[in-house]
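Appendix B. Chain record.
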Amino acid sequence: MNTMTPLEDQVMRMLLAGNDDVLAVLRQQIEQAQISSRKLTGAGFYTEFSIPSEIARLVGRQSFKLGDVNGTAANIKHGLGFLLYVNDGAIAMLEGYTYDDPWPDNVEGLMLTYSGGQNQNRNMHKVKQIVHST
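Structure tokens predicted for this chain:
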């Protein structure tokens, strides 16, 4: 249970992508992260992370949620959403959920996109507002 699933890895890579100091620190954290728990809810999952104490934490902006990655899958009718929780300057949890569908045993034909950007490109202005607001 100490490694991310392929779906979690794909989502985290997209959530942490971009030229930004905060995202760079979070990318360093996820490289050293351990999975402390994973819970299936029926309509999604919660994956909690443990970041070693020697890994740098964010200074200033301590807690926020980032959720601009969505997805579609062949076996999920209404799509998927994801939220990354950062607490006390460290990655804490990834939430994945469906919109009114049960979470399948295996997500088939996953396609991830960014929300709120032109042509499905990431809206980095909005991301920077979230990760740098106080």
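Further analysis of this model is presented in Appendix C.
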